[in-house]
Amino acid sequence: MRRPIILALAATCVALSAPALAKDQLVLAIGGEPEQGFDPLLGWGQYGSPLFQSTLLTRGQDLTPQPGLATEWSLSEDRLTWTLTLRTDVRFSDNTPLTAEDVAFTFNAAAEAGGRADLSALESARAIDGNTVELTLKTPRITFIDQLMTLGIVPNAERENGYGDEYGRQPLGSGPYRLVEWQEGEQLIDTLLSVPHLILLLLIAFALGGGTQAVIIAVALTHWPSLARLLRAELLSLRNAPYVAISKGFGKRQGFIVWHHLLPHVLPHCLVGALLLFPHAILHEAALTFLGVGLDPTQPAIGVLLADAMRYLTGGYWWLGVFPGLGLLLMVLAIERFARCCAKRCKDRDV
Fold it and tell me: Nearest Cα to 157, choosing from 33, 39, 35, 34?
């Protein structure tokens, strides 16, 4: 009996995972954001694939060098000169061709940048022609081939859409993926949202010794991420709104734009979001009090009533627990209904 059930679950997983193969987007949740962005010259991709950029060589399954951007490569007898022939069909994500000039610029600029890429042995890089590049070393270094397999190629700074100061935030490359959106600064929000509210509430309230102040601090520290994400999304959409661009075109200061364009639009959403958080806060306060790390038992609270009712439920006094629970449910539903109505009014006003 157990084997058919396991086989059925495996078949279900395969069936559900099949549509995922057709997706053309990759969503990454990384442990930390690179301070300098996704810039290969400053170290991005040194400990793995650069994703957005291509490398001259790649590693095979047996870790041997395999063709990447380069189809042919050779090392001179004195071990000082690498000569690489590039593919002719490679283009950056803006549909411009990748040439030997881009490769030479990448290696020269990375050597000057002094990032994680160890190019201290590089004397110079130059393009012999459109598809051939020559890398000259100061001294023989057999490990230099690692840089051919890890350093992502960036566009020459002298070309249109070339390498610049903002490249790390808006990388342009020829890799298998193109960066569409980077939600920078959301790691803290994602971390807090990944932990169940009640567990985090219990930990904070217990660490603070319980009581009214502990409940207030615990609720405040655990309920802001969802509202912060909502407001951030609104501000990002407003930043590119036509009327904001027109206001900037007229030379208005940032303070004027924030006061007259952003705040009037964001404040209603902030109010509605705060109202929608009230039901969660009430339920979590009642749960903390019921578990003994919330309000003092001498204070009037639904959680206290429910905790006291537990001692009498086995005696048949069911109403001691039903009516406080029903009151909690009605209060939460009433506040949520009011918040939904406010949200609908704000939506109608925006339209």
Answer: 39
- What's the CA gap between 97 and 54, in Å, rounded? 13
The tokens describing 204, both together, are: 């904070």
302, with CB counted inside 10 A (0-12, 13-18, 19+), is buried
Alpha helices in the chain (DSSP H): 2-17, 100-113, 145-150, 187-194, 197-207, 212-239, 242-249, 254-257, 263-290, 302-309, 319-350
Confidence of residue 194 (pLDDT cuts 50, 70, 90): confident
Strand 122-129 relative to strand 132-137: parallel, antiparallel, unpaired?
antiparallel
Give the chain's length.
351
312 DSSP assignment = T
Residues ≥6 apart with Cβ < 8 Å to 71:
85, 86, 87
Q: How far is CA 120 from CA 112, 125, 203, 250, in A?
A: 9, 13, 50, 49
User: Of the candidates 30, 35, 21, which has an alpha carbon nearest to the alpha carbon of residue 48?
Assistant: 30
Residue of 158, 144, 65, 174 lying closest to 109 (CA atoms): 158
Query: Cα angle at 23 between 17 and 26, to 5 degrees?
Result: 105
Give the three-state DSSP class for 85. Answer: strand
Q: What is the 3-state secondary structure (H, E, C) of 37-64?
A: CCCHHHCCCCCCCCCCCCCCEEECCCCC
pTM above 0.85, yes or no: no
Cβ atoms of 212 and 296 within 8 Å: the answer is: yes
Q: Is the pLDDT of residue 3 over 50?
A: no
pLDDT tens-digit readout, 220-245: 888 888 777 778 777 777 777 788 88
Q: Rounded to the nearest 5 degrees, what angle is found at the Cα of 310, between the Cα atoms of 306 and 312?
A: 120
